[in-house]
Specification:
4-stranded antiparallel sheet; SH3 type barrels; 3-stranded antiparallel sheet; about 160 residues; about 25% strand; alpha+beta; elongated
């Protein structure tokens, strides 16, 4: 009997709380008030944009690396009569490399000098680092490739099977 007494007391309290919650939810969603479009609280004012000020950066400051003041180059140069002569630019001649094949390295385990086998225009040449054959200078090399120089131009030649 004691349990039924508690149910009779708690049940109306729970129903009252739930009804208050539902009333609050539905009272906010069903709003019948009409909001007027001409609300004097909100007045739109045009935004004033200030004109930007122009400025110039002064670059006359000390160079941190040289320790000297920065001096701009003088842009005004006087042309002389001799400067009107136009020089024809030199046309760089095309450099035709001879056919070079790298076949491998020959070296003795006791000797530290390395001998490289190169085929230049069909002729076999055994060269050490620093040797020159047919104007081809052997600069360096290893088991997979060699660096050769021909008329001042450096080229990498990979090993050929």
């Amino acid at each position: 009997m004691k349990n039924k007494k508690n149910i009779y007391i708690i049940l109306p309290i729970v129903l009252f709380v739930w009804s208050a919650v539902l009333y609050q939810v539905f009272s906010f969603t069903n709003n019948d008030e009409v909001v007027s479009a001409n609300n004097p609280e909100f007045v739109i004012k045009p935004l004033k944009v200030k004109e930007r000020q122009s400025f110039i950066i002064d670059v006359n400051y000390r160079d941190p690396f040289l320790g000297k003041m920065y001096m701009p180059q003088a842009a005004t140069k006087v042309k002389t009569a001799n400067s009107s002569i136009k020089k024809t630019p030199k046309v760089p001649e095309t450099l035709v490399w001879p056919v070079i094949l790298y076949k491998g390295m020959i070296s003795d385990t006791k000797d530290k000098t390395k001998i490289f086998m190169l085929i230049i225009d069909g002729q076999n040449h055994y060269m050490k680092i620093g040797d020159t054959q047919n104007e081809i200078y052997l600069k360096s090399g290893d088991r997979e490739s060699v660096y050769v120089k021909y008329k001042g131009n450096l080229n990498l030649i990979m090993i050929q099977d």
